[in-house]
Specification:
- By secondary structure, the chain is mainly alpha-helical.
- It folds into 5 domains: 74 residues, no CATH class; 103 residues, no CATH class; 77 residues, no CATH class; 67 residues; 58 residues.
- Helix 7 packs parallel to helix 9.
- One of its GO terms (biological process) is DNA-templated transcription termination.
- One of its GO terms (molecular function) is nucleic acid binding.
- InterPro entries: MTERF (IPR003690), MTERF_sf (IPR038538).
- Belongs to the mTERF family.
């Protein structure tokens, strides 16, 4: 490998056939020597050095590069040979040797990193990632214009750092062609600059999407489904995932498919705010989930239908079988499981550990009603620490001190909102159970 003064790369050359000098008699000092002073790095020299001299020279360059790296960055962790080879090719360390070809000088990775850290206050990690992505550029004009535009638009240093750490190649974009049009289309939706910055900081990969064929079409499809630009803005604040998919091949046909089973658009519109990825499966995959739901005895006119389809979309066949084993181990029959699924399919998306722990507590509290969980499967979704145990402890204390005349049913006790529970049972007896209630919530 013969390194260029610019550090752009190398090329292998065979000894010149026209040369009358034998390779074995060629002077290594004549054909290949360090570049220094006024020597012309673009001057052609023939013949080329034999392999042995090339190899020794390359090893020497590698050694000098390693010494330069370690001496200039004493806190740098141990470097691999591949890292040093990359640095040798792309950095100023390569200027120890010159090539037989004329090349253009790129901006060097070390210079880029230093500039980004010193001039724009980016973190060293971000600066190094960006320098690798920009090593092919010949000037820093384009990155500078990108940074200036984003700062002028309102990106803070930390937001800019976060964006470039994840997508450093953005600095190589043409701002007028690849950045401004994407921000403009979001502005035309009525999204404020701070919200646009938040969206792009959260998901900087949107910069890689085509304005007309991807971003524009996705926004039109969302507006057609949701009914207004305000709703599009609202759902994009929940998730920008919609802008990464071809909605004409995913969301749109899935909407029509679910409508054919009796699901209303209004149901789907509400659903995607909680589960934005739900409508983005391939239609063929969605059909398979629907078939599995139908086998469980649920039809499209049930309010639980969409939840049931989502549950199947969230787990593999093996995970589903494992959940069934858990419920059987709790004493539920096949009919009990079907009944629980039809009432509250969401519980099957809970972890096996949570299903066991909550079931044990509820069965113990509901004795001798062994079928309590089957009739009230939705209670399995409640938090043990935040809701179930604090309320049970409060109720036990109030009953022990005869501070309440009538014990509520377990379902009523757990289904009350936090505000309702505190107003009825905690606030009137705050001197007795106030601290107890908050203490158990903090556990």
């Amino acid at each position: 490998m013969i390194l260029t003064n610019s550090g752009l790369g190398s090329q292998d050359r065979q000894p010149s056939r026209k040369s009358s000098v034998s390779p074995s008699t060629t002077s290594s000092s004549d054909s290949f020597r360090p570049f220094s002073g006024s020597a012309d790095p673009t001057r052609l020299r023939d013949p080329q050095p034999p392999f042995e001299i090339w190899f020794i020279s390359h090893k020497m360059a590698f050694y000098l590069c390693r010494r330069k790296l370690l001496s200039s960055t004493p806190n740098l962790p141990t470097l691999s040979n591949s890292t040093i080879s990359l640095y040798l090719i792309t950095s100023n360390a390569a200027s120890y040797y010159y090539s037989t070809t004329t090349t253009l000088n790129p901006i060097h990775t070390t210079s880029i990193a230093d500039h980004l850290i010193n001039s724009h206050h980016l973190s060293p990690d971000t600066a190094l990632k960006a320098s690798s992505a920009l090593a092919h550029l010949k000037t820093f004009d384009k990155p500078e214009s990108v940074i200036k535009y984003l700062k002028d638009f309102g990106f803070s240093t930390s937001q800019l750092d976060n964006l470039l750490k994840r997508t450093p190649h953005v600095l190589s974009y043409n701002p007028d062609l690849s950045i401004k049009p994407k921000i403009r289309i979001l502005q035309n939706l009525g999204i404020s600059p701070p919200d646009i910055i938040e969206l792009l900081s959260t998901d900087p990969y949107l910069f890689s999407r085509d304005v007309d064929n991807q971003l524009g079409r996705s926004i039109l499809a969302l507006k057609s489904f949701l009914g207004s630009e305000a709703q599009v803005v609202k759902v994009l604040k929940v998730s920008t995932t919609f802008l990464k998919y071809n909605l004409d091949k995913t969301m749109v046909p899935n909407i029509e498919l679910l409508k054919s089973y009796g699901v209303s658009e209004e149901q789907m519109q509400k659903f995607i705010f909680n589960f934005p990825r739900f409508l983005l499966y391939k239609p063929e995959t969605m059909k398979e989930y629907i078939k599995r739901v139908e086998k469980m005895g649920l039809s499209g006119d049930s309010k639980m239908f969409l939840h049931a389809v989502r549950v199947f979309s969230s787990m593999s066949e093996e995970s589903w079988k494992s959940k069934l084993k858990v419920f059987r181990s709790l004493g539920l029959t096949q009919e009990d499981i079907l009944s629980a699924f039809r009432k509250s399919p969401q519980i099957f998306a809970a972890s096996e550990r949570k299903i066991r722990e909550v079931s044990d507590i509820l069965i113990s509290a509901a004795k001798p009603d062994s079928k309590f969980v089957v009739r009230n499967p939705d209670l399995l979704l409640f938090s043990i620490k935040q809701r179930i145990m604090p309320r049970l402890k409060v109720m036990d204390t109030l009953l022990e001190r005869n501070l309440i005349k009538r014990k509520p049913s377990l379902r009523t006790l757990l289904k009350l909102s936090c505000k309702q529970f505190c107003a009825k049972y905690v606030d009137p007896h705050s001197d007795v159970v106030g601290e107890l209630y908050t203490a158990h919530q903090r556990l």
